[in-house]
Every structure is written in C-alpha cells, then in structure tokens.
Amino acid sequence: MDCILYIVISVLFAGTFMIMLELPFVSGSVLASGAGERIAVRILAPLLLLGGLCVPVFWPEYFHQMTDGLLATDSIANILPVGIATAVAAMAVRGFSRYVAVPYAFVAALAGLGLAEGNVINIGEALPYVLSWTAAPLLCALLSAGIYAFFAFAGRRHKTHLARSEGRYLAAATFVAVLLLPVAAANNSLVFGFLPSSLGDIAVWVTLGCALAILPFVLRHITMSKWNIADYELDTNPQSIISLMLGMLACFALFSSPVPGKIGLAATPLPAGTLYLAALAGISLFSKRTLVDGPNLLKGIVSTYISPVLAFLLSFSLGRVMDGALTGTFIVLGIIILIAGVVIYMRMQSRRIINQQIARAHEQQVYSTRKSLSALEVRAEMTEKDLLNKLDLKRKELVDFAMGISDQKDYMENVLEQLKQVRTAKDGSEKDARTDALLRSLKERMYFTREMNDFYARSEELHKDFNERLAESFPNLTENERKLANLLRQGFSSKYIASLMNITPKSVEINRYRLRAKLGLTRSENLINFIKSI
C-alpha cells in the first residue's frame, strides 16, 4: 500500500507535469500542419500517445538498460522527494518561461537525491547526460534548418501547382504526425526506467493510471495551449511546420536509442518545448523570418538549464532532510523561500508588463479614435465646402439662366417693335433699310457669341485638368483645335459641333483630320479614345 501511495503522490507532482506540460508542443505542431484536422489522426492521436507511454511495459529490459547506472534508484521512498523537487522546480521556472525542461529536472532530481544519500557521482557517467541536454536542441535546430533548406531548394528547382503541393505537404504531415506522437511519448516514458526496478510493471501502470485520472483537470489548459501554438505561433508555411516536426521526430527517436551512447552521449528523455524552440530558431536563422523572437529564445535557453539545477538542489536538500540533517533543512527552506520570491517577483513583473500593454493598447485606441474623429471632421468640413460650392454653382447657373431668359425676352420685344415700325413705314427705301438692319441683327444673334463664350468658359472650368494636360502634351494646338478636342471628349457629334462652332459639318471633318495629324495619330488609332485617354 505504501508503495502505491508513493507512486501516486509522485505522479501528481512529477509525472503529470512531465507529460501534460510538454504535450501541447507536439500536438500543437500536428494541428498547425493540418494533419490534426483529419478524422484518422484525431482518433489515433490519443491511442498513439498512450501506446508510446506503454512501451516500457512491453520492453522493460530495454528501457532499464537505457537508464541503468548513475541515476537509477532502488529505494521506493526516494520517489516522493524526486517528484516534489521536479514539481517545485517546474513551477518556479514556469513563472519565468513556459519552456520548462521537466524531463531534465526529473533526471537531475534523481542525481541530487543520490548525492544526498552519499553516492558518489561519477563524472564519466553524468557528463553524457549534460552533453546530451545541449546536443539534442542543437541537433534539432540543425536538422530543422537543413530540412527546410531542402524544401526551399526543391521548390525552386521543381515548380509545382499550389493545390498539388499543398496536398503533398498535407499527406507528408499526416505521415510524420503518426510517427511523432508515439515516438515523443515513448521518449518521455524513459523516466519510468529511473523508477525502482523492484516495483516491476506496477510502477508504470499506476503512473499511467494517475496521469489519465488527472487529465480531465488539465485538459482545458492543454487544449488552449495547443490551439494557441497552431493558430498564432505556427501561422507560417507548410514547409516550416513539417521541417519542425521532422527535426523533433529525429531527436526523440535518436535519444531513445543506444546510438548516443556510442558517441559519448546518453539516452535521455527530452523536453518537447525545448526541441520546439530550437527548431523554430533554426528555421528562422535559415529562412530569415522571425518565427521566435530573441527574448523568448533567451528565456527558453536559460530555463532549459535552470530547471535541472533547481531540481538537483531541491532533491539534494530534501534527501538531507530525510536523513535528519539540520543543514539540509535550512538549505531546503532557503531554496523554497528563494524560489517563492522568484516566482512572486516574476508574476509581479508579468502583471506589470500586462498592465503596461493594456494601458498602451488603451492609449493607442484613444489615439486611433481621436484620429478617426479628426479625419471625420476634416471630411465633413470638406464635404460641407463641396456642397456649398455646388450650391453656389447651381445658384449662379439659375441666375444666369434667368438673365438669359430676360435678355432673350428683351431682344424679342425689340425685334417686335422694329417689325411694327417696318410695317408702318410708307417709304419703300426706308422699309428696305429697316428690314436689312433687322436681318443683320437676327443673323448676328444666330451666332450666339456671348452664349458660346460662356459655354466654352464653363467647359474649360469643368475640364480644367484635361485642358492643362492637353496644353502640356500638345502646346502647338490652336484655340479652335482645343475647343474641338473638348467637344469631342464630351461626346458631341459632328452635326452639333458644326452648330456650336458655327461652321459646316464638312469643315468639322477637315478640322478633325488636322487635329489627328497634330496629335500624331495613325489611321488605325481612334481619335476620341485617344483624347479621352489624355
């Protein structure tokens, strides 16, 4: 019973953090690739993760062989302090950065507890773990950048239709996702190899059972985190996402095998968050796109090494307390106070930054609102001026129209009086002279000189920009040719132009021919279309 109690408490402190905090980085990448939307992947994802975690049950000898040596422990009582040290270190670092290297902290906690019990840490056995913790992120960054470079080179070499290439990337992402989920879970299940071998398979089953039992309480946080990663952080091209997934897959698989031991490294559980951050940094460096900013990258690097250091110190101190050492008690209290102070300070800093961002956003909103209001006021003022100008123009047209009617009336009355005088004249020569004078007056009136001048003045004002461009482009045009161009642009036919210019339709055609010549048009070019394009 004590054995099961120790395991349950340890899982609540360490195992849950280990699996749950790292899970969104893997599942979020799968969602961002588009593979997570496929029904098959949705159904298989939980089974693949659970299957990966159950690997130690089916191959216990292999996993104990991977973790045999310095960091393994045979004491059941040691599970609890390791779990507490891992959990406290994870919570403390999480206040600083979300890239918490929980697997590193767990392994370091085991080492710290072993040192507290008087075991001598063999540098030759400990160094491969420390080197692996650095080599794995660097390898992930290089692999992701190299795969992205390959995709970029292949894309430039072989041009493919967008729909076809998207389909290929989605198929590749689905295949990689089906491999990544169980391999990532299997790599993190290496922690089960550090549990006391005397517990047998019960340790793994109880750990898995506790993790599944607590899953509903952290499911909302996991779901929000993975969708945030998929929708915002990985809102990029498919090549980047598949490169990231392949880089993580390769590192998880490599460090779950005996291969690292042959080159001076060690098989070790890897934090998905650290690999995710390293892959983003590698792709950003090659593609010259900022997928992760400098401050977050720096925080992630610091968190990767602070997590195991804190867990080591806490586990060592807890081990000394369990042995009854007063010095260990003070060390534990000091570390706890220090961690609590750091967490409180980081939370205060985070709140201060959030408040500053809110205040800045509020100021920006106020500024935008004022700017919009000013723009509306300017627009309203301009609209008002425009309306007033149009109103004045209409009034002037009305006045001119009224004056024109009055002028026409006066003229017609004058003609009527002259006709009466011609009719009453008895002398034939006088009657002929008055008739000739009246005909001349009518003929002059038919020219509508004043009205035509007014018409041309209004037309030039209305098409001021056109007249300026015409004069600038063709300064050799005469005044009559410019008038003809204006009338053609307004859509008047040759008949109306002849009437307005007081010439014959044949003269209009001749003037059009001369205008075409001065404009430099060929036979195939349309005169009116050319004038409208000026």
Characterization of the model:
It is a single chain. The protein is an all-alpha fold and 534 residues long. It folds into 2 domains: 323 residues, no CATH class; 87 residues, Arc Repressor Mutant, subunit A (Orthogonal Bundle). The protein is built from 20 helices and no strands. The chain starts with a helix and ends with a helix. The mean pLDDT is 76.
Describe how the helices and strands are arranged.
Layout: H1 2-33, H2 39-53, H3 55-58, H4 60-66, H5 79-94, H6 102-116, H7 123-157, H8 162-188, H9 201-233, H10 238-254, H11 272-287, H12 294-322, H13 326-424, H14 428-446, H15 449-462, H16 464-473, H17 479-489, H18 494-501, H19 505-519, H20 527-533
Helix pairs in contact: 1-5, 1-8, 1-9, 1-10, 2-8, 5-6, 5-12, 5-13, 6-12, 7-10, 7-11, 8-10, 10-11, 11-12, 12-13, 13-14, 18-19
Radius of gyration: 45 Å
Task: Label the overall shape.
Answer: elongated
Query: Count of DSSP helices?
Result: 20
Give a quick account of the main beta sheet: strands, pairing sense, barrel closure. Answer: none
Count of distinct structural domains: 2
Mean pLDDT: 76
Which regions contain 5 or more consecutive residues with pLDDT less than 50? none
Helix content: over 70%
Strand composition percent? under 5%
The number of strands is 0
How would you name the oligomeric state of the polypeptide chains in this document?
single chain
The end-to-end distance, rounded to whole angstroms, is 95 Å
The computed structural class is mainly alpha
What is the H/E string? HHHHHHHHHHHHHHHHHHHH
